Amino acid sequence: MNNTDTIAAPITPLVKSPVITIRISGSNALKVYSLMEKGGKSINISDIKPNYVSLYRFNIKSENLHDDVLSVYFKAPHSFTGEDVVEISFHGNPLLVNAAFTEIYKLGIRHAEGGEFSKRAFLNGKIDLTQAESIQELISAKSIEGVNSAYNQLQGSLRFELDNIKDILLKMKAVMEAKIDFPDEDTVDEEIEILKNHCKNVLSKIDGLILSYKSYRNANRGLEIVIAGKPNVGKSSLMNAFLKEERAIVSDIAGTTRDFIKESLYIGGIPVHLTDTAGIRSSSENIEQIGIDRSRQKIETADIILLLLDISAPLTDEDYSILEDTKNSNRIIIGNKVDITDNKFYDKADIYISAKENINIEKLVEILREKTSAHDNETKSNAAAITERHHTILLDIKEIIKKINNSLGIYPIDMLCIDLERAINLLSEITGDNYTEKVLDIVFSSFCIGK
Fold first, then answer.
1. Is 342 marked as binding a ligand?
2. How do residues 367-410 score in pLDDT, each as one tens digit?
3. Comparing C-alpha atoms, which of 265, 160, 266 is closest to residue 209?
4. What is the rounded distance in angstroms from the CA atom of residue 146 to the CA atom of residue 254?
5. Where is (6S)-5-formyl-5,6,7,8-tetrahydrofolate annotated to bind (predicted)?
6. Nearest alpha-carbon partner for 218 in 5, 373, 80
7. Cα 167–171–174 angle (5° rounding)?
């Protein structure tokens, strides 16, 4: 990839639509105006005003085609990429735009690779690496919370937090280097106390960012919600009631669901993955037992458990076993089959419903909406869209700082200073102040053309 080439690509989908917009970036971007005219006259480049939208006729001579287009010129360095940028909006026919690209490429302009506009913005100092990543996160976010987090990161919220951490690390480095240059036994305890306080502060800030990562992951990955209970308590009926369609097989025969069934939906604006599990019971049938074992695994890893009980009959040992196993879990206890009994054999449920007759299902959805919001609020942070890359590096930094904190007063300060320098360098990898081509390839490889 040559970063000095002038590049072009569509920045809207290249499909039939009202408008298709393309972007040209680089030192030769203004050459594209040689393909346009205004009022039957060719365009004098010196007359083009930056940041003004103008109407032109775009000529595609090879196909004898024309289109009336809107174009705007962003003069370097006041553009997204930091280079001269021209954006042109065509009528939304891909045939027309592809023909226009053919003419543009004849000017010595090449097609942009995926993420190349954003990469140039980073290399030209318009955005840091976390902001570049936030563009992709903003586009791919699966919830409103995810959109907000990505936007905050684009505005520099993560950079702000990381700069605060870096400032503390640099203060630690200054204390350590002063100790190395001017050793004084009388101040050892005081300096160790200062460094330990700095370590505590850094660890607290990193833990906050890790919580932000968990919140962002939940907002985009979705919460895992599992419907659990013994066989034939109405789990599949409840699944169908949520989905408003017969996705799961409903039968009076115990053990009908032999494996879990998973569907995705939104509750309270949060994506959730709803799983109907095989009924939990002792089984001598190998195939059913495999499904039961997988159900137990799903229950153990669930964010929220919908524990279903049949209140039309006395609870069994299987019911009590599931109640005991999930007592420390984030669960909603649901008494089912109120349509066939007035006598509740279990009076400690959070809600009573009939999955079959759709009684109180909306109330259950409301409880679940509150539960998902509460779960999200436990780790909710609008600080930033912490990605897996950030999270991995933050964990490495955390371990280094914990090691330094535990080693103060035990190991020589110059050894700890080396560890501290490594933590500072790792922090710079997140923002891109310290980067390699491999890191850039990893970050921008997921970007689509035009970003």
1. no
2. 988 887 665 555 454 557 888 899 999 999 999 999 999 998 88
3. 160
4. 41
5. 23, 87, 126, 451
6. 373
7. 140
Per residue in 297-324, pLDDT (tens digit) is 778 888 899 999 999 889 998 889 889 9
Is 349 marked within a binding site? no
Task: Tell me: is residue 291 an annotated ligand-binding position.
Answer: no
Cα–Cα distance between 360 and 22 in angstroms, integer? 52
Q: Which CATH architecture has domain 132-218+387-432?
A: Up-down Bundle (1.20)
Q: How far apart, in Å, are the Cα atoms of 401 and each of 173, 209, 211, 406, 434?
A: 12, 15, 18, 9, 19
Instruction: Encode pLDDT of 20-57 as tens digits.
Output: 999 999 999 999 999 999 999 999 999 999 999 999 99
pTM comes to: 0.74
Other residues' Cβ atoms within 10 Å of the Cβ of residue 100 = 24
User: Both tokens of residue 204?
Assistant: 């607290």
The CATH class given to the 222-378 domain equals alpha beta
In whole angstroms, what is the distance from residue 228 CA to residue 326 CA? 10
Residue 109 assigned to a binding site: no
Check: CB of residue 431 under 8 Å from CB of residue 127. no
Nearest-angstrom CA–CA distance, 243 and 437: 46
277 is in an annotated binding site: yes
Is the CB of residue 161 less than 8 Å from the CB of residue 384? yes
The crossing angle, in degrees rounded to 10, of helices 157-181 and 188-221 is 160
Q: Is 39 annotated as a binding residue?
A: no
pLDDT value of residue 293: 60
CB 393 within 8 A of CB 443: no
Q: Is 252 a known ligand-binding residue?
A: yes
Q: How far is CA 194 from CA 179, 227, 259, 376, in A?
A: 12, 51, 57, 35
- What DSSP assignment string belongs to 382-413? -S----HHHHHHHHHHHHHHHHHHHHTTTS-H
Query: What dotted CATH number matches 7-127?
Result: 3.30.1360.120
Q: Which residues pair with 70 in a beta bridge?
A: 55, 89
Q: Tokens representing 101? A: 């690209």
Structural domain boundaries in the chain: 7-127, 132-218+387-432, 222-378
- The answer to whether 67 is a known ligand-binding residue is no
Closest by Cα among 271, 353, 347, 265 to 306: 353
Give the other-Cβ count within 10 Å of 356's Cβ.
Answer: 16
Determine whether the annotation assigns residue 256 to a binding site. yes
Q: 387, exposed or middle or buried, with CB in 10 Å at 0-12, 13-18, 19+? A: buried
Distance in angstroms (rounded) separating the CA atoms of residues 232 and 16: 51
d(CA 359, CA 336): 9
Angle CA(52)–CA(46)–CA(50) in degrees, nearest 5?
Answer: 20
